Amino acid sequence: MMHTTTSQQVQRESWDGDTAASGRLLQPGLDVTHGQILYLDDISVSFDGFRALNRLSLSIAVGELRCIIGPNGAGKTTMMDVITGKTRADSGSAFFGQTINLAQHSEAEIAQLGIGRKFQKPTVFEAMTVQENLELALAGPRSVWASLRARLTGQQRDRIDELLTLIRLGEQRARLAGLLSHGQKQWLEIGMLLAQEPQLLLLDEPVAGMTDAETEKTAELLLTLKGRHSLMVVEHDMDFIASIAGKVTVLAEGAVLAEGSLQQVQADERVIEVYLGR
Amino acid sequence: MQSALSLRLAQRIGPLPLKLAGAAALAVLLAMPALHLWTDPASSLHVSAYTLTLVGKILCYAIVALAMDLVWGYTGLLSLGHGLFFALGGYGMGMYLMRAIGHDGNYQSDLPDFMVFLDWKTLPWFWQGSEHLAWALCLAVGVPGLLALVFGWLAFRSRIKGVYFSIMTQALTYAAMLLFFRNETGFGGNNGFTDFKRILGYGIAEPATRATLFLLTVLLLVAALAAGFWLVHSKFGRILTAIRDAESRLMFCGYNPLYYKLFIWVASAMLCGLAGALYVPQVGIINPGEMSPANSIEIAIWVAVGGRGSLIGPVLGAGFINAAKSWFTVAFPEYWLFFLGGLFIATTLFLPRGLLGLLRRHKENA
């Protein structure tokens, strides 16, 4: 259960000399020799007879920013649940890198392996300050014993300062997270994901409920993350997708309907059909 | 950064009036046994054995309330079976006290009276070693701890939460009560243990013994408050509140809530056991009634009325309600439960942060 993330961290620091980088693309132990960080192969999930995912196959390349769109009930959130261990697939397999079978790990282990997830509804620890939220999320040992003896190191303080600047919450650091605006909570949650130093980020509707200005800033933020992390973004806001997307995957009825650039999928007859109805 | 930290610490301990009130309360508590021992019974300063025992009993309850608050107020696990851990601690101590009666029981036997009454010839295996106070204390802390460990492991691993968890804890204490009611279980059936004579050779009703037990209870309460303060302000404590407020977020941050819940749950049960062990020699009796579901619910009410999620709140709640109870049950015995229920409803409706919230709000307005 208790992973020795400290030693990994030391290795990562020495491997990646660029300390300004807010995340590390590759981690020793994760085999991405074929250039893919995530493989979903032939995954099916049913709830009480309803097929939420129907033989879904999808892969994400290292450093890619992939947008997932699809009508309600297409299986987007269920797919994230399967990747993060919240839901078990009835059949098919999910691999992180070449070798890690996600079905064999719990939610907490998957998070420690380097997959971070932002929920559809922004979820932060409301009774704690912004800084304390980030402290809890910081990469490091996760055992009870370690938590009883934990003290912030100077390095960790610097990392928190860096994150606070990145998510534009520097001035709010001592505020209770419950008092933040909706958009700020979204950012804080993204900041918490980054604090974990994940290699793959799953973002479920990161700009839902944000003002236009906030949406724009979020797009900027995600673009700076692209390349350093691999990202999978589920969104409904097409303008937002147009501002960030390279490749778009359309899900419908639990399977991939189309894949390509935003223009390509928007021109696809089948996509128009599922969105507009027959 | 250093000064900011000490400033925050001062804020957390509370404003000056609260600190002064705490210091005064502690001074009064420490003076009570002295006033019991060294003042003339006729003097107005004298603290009677009744008062000392009553306050000592309430202090034990306050420790239980604090233990309850760590799992409920901070971690969000509402236990309706905490009375069980308290009672088990009491039984552990009770076993020693029964053995310490020696030949002075009604039947002048080596065995405790109830065993003679049941016509048992030898001590059951689980009574072995109970003539040593140290072993009895190990039992008083270890048995609740072990039970909490097994129960907690099964419940938390299966991710049983909320009202389901509460109902299971309630069922657990109820089942234990039924078990302890049986004579064959070997703990004196529905009479439990009573008629204690001495502890470590000192008469159980002697003023000095009472005073010592009282002081030990005060010390345990202070130690529990200090340990609780350290715990909830560590990273561990923040993880507990994270479990309470957004458990799935915590899991996706890479923490496994199981071990955190288990740690605080077992620690809380052990603290209750210790409180029970101090309660029994002061009150002079332990019986399965202590395991009744109503007792455990009352513990939750102390915490709710005092103020969940603060350390001092539950102590105030336990003190206030039990003081009210001892007055009420003499003055209007029939109406106590109505009053208690009404108080609980009023607190839930108007004082979500309990009495402590009221004090703090008053201060904020001032």
List keywords for this structure.
heterodimer; A: 278 residues; alpha/beta; Rossmann fold; 6-stranded mixed β-sheet; 4-stranded antiparallel β-sheet; 11 helices; 10 strands; 23% strand; globular; B: 366 residues; mainly alpha; two-stranded antiparallel ribbon; 14 helices; 4 strands; 2% strand; membrane (chain B); Urea ABC transporter permease subunit UrtC (chain B); branched-chain amino acid transmembrane transporter activity (chain B); ABC_transp_permease (chain B)
Walk me through what this model shows.
The complex is a heterodimer of chains A (278) and B (366). Chain A has one domain: P-loop containing nucleotide triphosphate hydrolases (Rossmann fold). Chain A is 37% helix and 23% strand. Chain A is globular. By secondary structure, chain B is mostly helical. Chain B has a domain of 232 residues. The model of chain B has no long low-confidence stretch (mean pLDDT 92). The chains are: A alpha/beta (278), B mainly alpha (366). The interface between A and B is medium-sized, with 31 and 24 residues. Chain B: Keywords: Cell membrane, Membrane, Transmembrane, Transmembrane helix. Chain B: Its main location: membrane.
